[in-house]
Amino acid sequence: MGNIGNIINYKIISYMVTISVMNQKGGVGKSTSTRNIATYFSMQGYKTLMIDIDAQANLSQISNIPDNVENTIVRAFKGLMPSIYNVSDNLFIIPSSLSFAGIENEIKDVEDQEIFIYNLVTKVSKDYDVCFIDCPPAINIITINALAASQWILIPMEASKLAFNGLEMMLKVISMVRGGLNPDLSILGAFFNKFKEKTVVARDVLAQMKEKGIDLALFNTRIRQFEDFKKAEMINQSIFEYAGSSLSAADFKNLSNEIIAKLKENNSLKK
């Protein structure tokens, strides 16, 4: 990670919108959010790619990708092309696997180790409208790879007292990447996930963020905590496939529409 500021002006490909879904705190629902938002984009006619760069492979699992699948994201970090698997209409994934866990050690002495995902995104950018990268819950060279390849960062967070633990560090790293490796990188926004209604915690979190000087745009939609999400994951489905008319699906529909509107406002989405 010592080279973050030293590789200047790798131009982000404009054919495809690339969004890193990122939070260094685990358990905030990154993979579930990625799966459901990406599914909604695909339902709106956007040819959508998901890239799983988390060794836990949760996104891959809830996208119905077998554990023993071959040609995963590991190949991209060896300069090879991984396989792309069809999840549903207009929705595709480059999966991860447990074997990805040791990749940091394998590339630690490799020159330009920050741009493996950039190189991958460049190869596929003309084939898709939008790409979501599900990042690991850490600030490491794998996450830096995602930030180097993205125009946007989307931050899911919980409305809890621990919600912004590490948030300041995450924003500093984003600023460092934007200042050198990827000047085109911007924060799309954040949203509250696993939200429990009738609590004042969200208000307290916002107050503490303001007190610490953390200026982070929040989407209006809050993803409420419903049992439907766990049930959908148990059978490897998105919330739209499992319970398309439910309140839980409505939450992700509303959030996704907010994201689409903001991307169009910034001339990122071409349709």
Write up what this structure looks like.
- The chain has 271 residues and is an alpha/beta fold.
- It has helices spanning 30-43, 58-62, 103-107, 116-124, 141-149, 167-179, 201-211, 227-234, 239-243, 247-265; strands at 17-21, 48-52, 85-88, 91-94, 130-134, 152-158, 186-193.
- Helix 1 crosses helix 10 and helix 4 packs parallel to helix 5.
- The radius of gyration is 17 Å and the shape is globular.
Tell me the series of helices and strands, N- to C-terminal.
EHEHEEHHEHEHEHHHH
Within CATH, the superfamily carries the name P-loop containing nucleotide triphosphate hydrolases
**Gross CATH architecture:** 3-Layer(aba) Sandwich
- Report the radius of gyration as a whole number of Å: 17 Å
Sheet having the most strands: 7 strands, mixed
Quick summary of this structure?
The protein is α/β, with parallel strands linked by helices. It has helices at residues 30-43, 58-62, 103-107, 116-124, 141-149, 167-179, 201-211, 227-234, 239-243, 247-265; strands at 17-21, 48-52, 85-88, 91-94, 130-134, 152-158, 186-193. Helix 1 crosses helix 10 (247-265) and helix 4 runs parallel beside helix 5.
